[in-house]
Predict the structure.
Amino acid sequence: VEIERSSAQARLPPRFLRSIPLADTGDMGAAWCRGSIICTPRETNPSHEDARLSATRIRLAAYDQEHLLDFVSMLNHHELSAFLTELNEIDLDVLETEMKKLFMKKKEEKVMPFPLDDIGDYRSASPEVKARWKSTTLKAIGRGEVAVVLVAGGQGSRLGFDKPKGMYDIGLPSGKALFQLQAEKIQKLRLLASRDSKTPADLPWYIMTSDATHEDTVAFFKKSPEAEKHRGGLPAEDIRCFRQGMMYCINKEGKKVMLAGTGKLARSPNGNGGIYAAMRDKGILKDMRDRGVKYLHVYCVDNALAKIADPYFLGYCIETKADAGNKVLQKHDPDERVGVMCVRNGMPAIYEYSEISDKNKYMREKNGGLTFGLASICIHYFTTDFLFRMCSDRDGKKLNGGIMPYHIARKKIPTIDAKGKVFKPKENNGIKLEMFIFDAFNYAKNMKCFIVDRFGEFSPVKNPPGIGKLAAPDVARADVNRYHLSLLSKAGLSLLKAVSEKLDIAESNFKPSLLAQTAVKSVKAGVPMLVYVHGEKINRDGVMESWCPDCRVASKILFEELKEREAKGKGYILITLPVARAGYKGNASHMYRTNPDMKIEGVPTLFLWTTKGPIAQRTLGEAGCQSPEKVKNFLDYSYAISARNVEIPAKLSYDGEGLESAVADSLKLADPLAQWCSPGVQ
């Protein structure tokens, strides 16, 4: 803008001028006019802003972060002022120190298995011991000494859902979201504890959100028209939401802070380990102490089978005077991508999947179990005394209050290009700094683990629905149905027996359409469909057995596994396709070799078949079929993704005993219970 030279103009750099059409000026007082444009000073002291910018530039240059000011000429006054404030909040000295630590070569660590003496096992505990654990917890709830803490900062982006993950409906008949199902479980525990203590029990629920989920979460429980229903009977004052902290994003070299816009730093939630500093800084720990809370149950929102404040887990930890506890499962196999409990450099810790050496990953005990096999599922116990001790201001100069170390997560981080335009990268371009909730175990003086069965305990909801996807809503829905059907059966309700069917199809009778038709049937029955190609049986010295030695080994393994599962009420459909040696050996054009869905390379071969054909990446070939561990894992996977539509009987008979026990054990019985019962049954 061309302005007549004056003393006023000399004091006003271009960024402190604004251009306004003459027609819009109105009565603006003195202004320099030229054509259709006027220029007026901004409502601030330009000398002061210049000084702030200069000081900030000098400070950033000292840490090689001057690039953060590359686009300030594109900002208006208010944007610049806010951006300078944001920049001056960064403790660059500490950030530089922390980044150097993360990229330093780690010292050799001594890693040992978690000690057996500190492990409680629900699976082998006697009924008397379980009853004692349960009673201990219910009494503590009755005294107001227990609270529940939920980690719920994640959005449902991977699920194709733009709200908090806790608001997601996995497709149960009631249409209830994960949040509401969990609220009802907490309410059930309150009622059970109140019944035993003869007085109303309090069980407060603290929910850690993020900037992305906070407002929606608060509205779900307290502001929406259905908020009361969403709370599942819990008092509004017993649900308190608090935000986790944010952390700066760093470029992939680990040197420079990234920009999310021309005047905005790139930030991301600081990980589930940010819960401790957030609880301290948001007054949550103080609120707990004021309420008289002594014991906490902490869990993540996306486990559809989470047993909230599990009375057995908490009871074990309370009785053993643990200050921290971790609920664990036995790993499926050495390659399952989960962290495991261990002792690292003399302290309890989680051995991350990305850290564990091949030697330790495959190491086994004399009984055949994995040495490092206690899989962590992010369900924890802490005492408030422990958290107060851990969260005390150890070093106020540290980025996270001196509580947890940071870990590197390489991600695709939206940022700006050389022209200041925002873009989303297709490859990992930066680093998010995250804290892990389990790093608190390092500070524990009395750490315990509690082993449970996977069935009925763990079914995460992370991936979108679809055949072949684990940790998906349809898998979680099937897991919930299966578990609650088992509770009803245990309580004395007569249920439909699992469908098990075996079809042997000779080569001369084989039609691809038979497989497609049977796959539809398996989906409706909620059972996996297996297709097993093997060498046909022949008379060998008076014994009918396969001409293929590998098939003889594989068949024994497969049928023993299926028999064991059938005994537990797990059905299946098995189609066996025997091949004759004469027509198969050396015949590259055999129909099972050339069929576009099968293309077998040898016998035996085992497929998991769906309505869209086999899941190729899960097919077991000759070697895999002869491995008991691989066959077991194959079947575990098959059941996990195949049982989606459990057929429910129209009517159920009930012997009148045991149901209350089952309700108490599950904390809240099956979601679609009303649909499963005869008319009039309460």
Q: What stands out?
A: Confidence is low (pLDDT under 50) at residues 1-44, 393-401, 644-682. The radius of gyration is 31 Å.
